[in-house]
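call fold target=Termination factor Rho
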Amino acid sequence: MTRGSKDKYTLKQKRQAEHIEASYEEKGLSPEEAEARAWATVNKQSGGGERAGGSGQDKSPADKASSRRSSARRAVASKHGLARSSRESLATETKAELMKMARANNIPGRSTMHKHELVEALSSVS
């Protein structure tokens, strides 16, 4: 099957894509852009064509819905230029960097703290 072929999609997915494409064209998008966005939307909602095997087959519908919601929240936050929570951003730092920040904030007991404790202490200060 060639790249871009829609043979593996269900009739329902094809109807959804047509409906979404028509909606985009009504909004003034070019037919090519409308088609691309329509299929991207169908892929995001359903995980792509109904392929045997493929990724995501082990997830329950509830897990897929949860993943979509969290992904959508992160996308909106990044679109509006909002950083992740301080705890999430601190968790990506090394322990040495966290120790420097703790020292700068005069956090007591920092020398005996584990990384997750430093993250908690620094997130409560920020």
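return ok
The mean pLDDT is 81. The radius of gyration is 23 Å.
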